[in-house]
Amino acid sequence: MTDQAISSPAAGMATDVAGPAGPKPKRLTASRVGVYAFLIIAALFFLIPLWVMIVTSLKTLPEIRLGNLFNWPSDLTFDPWIKAWTTACTGRDCDGISPGFWNSVKITVPSVILSVFLAALNGYALSFWKYRGSELFFGLLMFGAFVPYQVVIYPLIIAFREIGIFATLPGIIILHSIFGMPILTLLFRNFFGSLPGELFRAARVDGAGFWQIFVMIMLPMSVPITIVAIILQVTGIWNDFLFGVVFAGRPNMPMTVQLNNIVTTTTGIREYNVNMAATILTALVPLAVYFISGKWFVRGIAAGAVKG
Amino acid sequence: MAQRRWRLSSLQAIIGTIPLIGVSVGVFVICIIFSILWSFTSSKLFPNFDWVGFENYDRLWQTSRWIVSVQNIWLFGVLSIVGNMVFGYVLAVFMDQRIRMEDTFRSIFLYPFAMSLVVTGLVWQWMMDPNLGVQAAMQNLGLEWFRFAPLTDANTAIYGVIVAGIWQGTGVTMAILLAGLRGVDQEIWKAAKVDGIPNWRTYLFIALPMMRGAIATAFVLQCVGVVRVYDLIIALTQGGPGIATQMPAVFVIQHITNRQNVGMGMAAAAMMLAPIIVLIAIRALVMWRAAAQEKRAAKLAIAAEERERLEAAGIAAPVAAE
To answer: What share of chain B is helix, strand, coil (3-state, %, to 5)?
Structure first.
């Protein structure tokens, strides 16, 4: 930082006096080295936990007890992974984390479809079919984006119990759709708001109605924003813990909840390697989404964060 | 006929937004009202409407578990947001130095955000293990003085949580602020260079104030995350040691589940809502004042235009008379 501060004004002055003279010469100054050194140290801070997770999951327990956290396993083993997937115990059940994986799939897929569809519908209606009060509902929804979950969670438990969907698969799917709605609706409303109005008016003149325009014109046009919404929802719902633990019910526990149960199970010896293997397995789906989607992921976060 | 068809479609629009109406009113109005109502009742395991006034709030603020929670959320909130923003901005500035492999660095800084807070918590719990974690590894390397096990001490546990939070969230701040930096007009950089302003001053005093939008975005994202912090605590410390890392979000959930004290839990939930209401009120006030100012400016502009027209007419009139 200081290096730059000292060196750059002089360099700036020099080029100004001489005027622009072709491309910048490629030289390795002290400040360049400093920049890379800082970035690499920062990268290590972010990478070390991942490294530790991977090497721990490949070590045997005796080797772990030696306390050399960062070392590559001398006695490579894949048993912890197999055990984490098939036989690790959460309390009394010893089926590994695989049931949690399938539960998460069963929760995530319908929740993503339902929430994205509803949000697209909301955004479309709020952009092209404003009626008296529609802006008020949207305002309330935006308020909801800031409300801590804890404020509304208990009345929802009671309501779900009254309807009879508490601790069921449909219940948790509806819940995820509710809490995904504020941000996703904003996303779609902004997108539809940026489309030219003539498109809509032309369709109206041709006699198309609310649903026709939505399904035939608007949905096909909103593919990019739908991808962003899907990325946002898949990672968000897969990573959810609170709703899973409260609303999913014992047979539908998602992977994150089961992971936490496996790790905090205190009966018997703590198998750090199995725990880490289970942790990586849980992180795999969102990590895959992240690495495949690349810049879309960042766009999704930024778009979702720009509220109001 | 056309009018009637329009109205029919409008009805379709209302039908289409039934889920929107249901969620916005049903969840974010009615549920909140019920939460607040129950906070004034003696509800224990099941909700009732036996009115007790402010008793729950009184007791809440005498409960050390709650007071520690509130202190923790402030400490955690301020430190993790400041840490996140400073570290995130420094990273963004360094990323902005036309470095090679920018995409690789970006991926590295950002990948923790894709992972669940439960995963983050469990990894850092393992890293901070006093006997087998980073501390032990460094001591094995001969660094006997090395200490890195904040979670075992009630006084330092919260800092362990902050480290994990910063690890998970800084990448996003970096990405948003970097986008903001790239959005700053290139002419500004040239002008600053011509004036001989050192780079770091340009970044700190010229670029930073110009990217208010990006900063606000990152800040809001952080704030929402801080208020909702639950998963991280559960996975990392379970609120312990003792009650050292309790948070309001954990407090509420514990009271409506294991502790079976719905009234108290709802009082705590209402307290969580209070800062949000204050923030929204402030924002509404600012926006209202901005709107009023705009109106006044518009009025002035119209008046000026009028005067100009009159002047033009005044000049034109004598000419016409001649």
So the answer is: 75, 0, 25
Question: Distance of CA A189 to CAs A199, A222, A247, A264, A285, Å?
Answer: 16, 11, 29, 43, 28
Same domain, B131 and B253: yes
CB contact under 8 A, A49 and B167: yes
Chain A residues in contact with B268 by the CB 8 A cut-off are: 150
Flag whether A91 is in a domain. no
**What integer pLDDT is reported at residue B186 of this predicted model?**
84
Q: Enter the DSSP assignment of A90.
A: B
For residue B180, what are the domain limits? 63-276
In this prediction, residue A6 carries a pLDDT of 35
Q: Which structural domain, as residue segments, surrounds residue A255?
A: 98-305
Q: Can you give the pLDDT at residue B143? A: 82
* Two structure tokens written together for B207: 């670029």
Evaluate whether residue A93 is within a structural domain: no
Residue stretches of chain B with pLDDT short of 70: 1-9, 313-322
CA B299 to chain A, closest CA, distance in angstroms equals 27
Residue B76, both tokens = 């955690």
How high is the pLDDT of residue A307? 39
pLDDT tens per residue across span A144-161: 888 889 999 999 999 999
**Gap from A229 CA to chain B (nearest CA, Å):** 15
- Number of domains comprising chain A: 2
CB–CB of B23 and A289 under 8 A? no
Chain A, window 73-102: residues with a beta carbon less than 8 angstroms from a chain B beta carbon: none
The residues with which A93 forms a beta bridge, in sequence order, are A90
Q: Which residues of B touch A38 (CB under 8 A)?
A: 90, 94
The ipTM assigned to this model is 0.83
User: Which chain B residues have a beta carbon less than 8 Å from that of A299?
Assistant: none
User: Which residues from chain B sit within 8 angstroms of residue A4, using beta carbons?
Assistant: 198-200
Both structure tokens of B239? 């609120």
Q: For chain A, which ranges sit under pLDDT 70?
A: 1-28, 266-267, 300-308
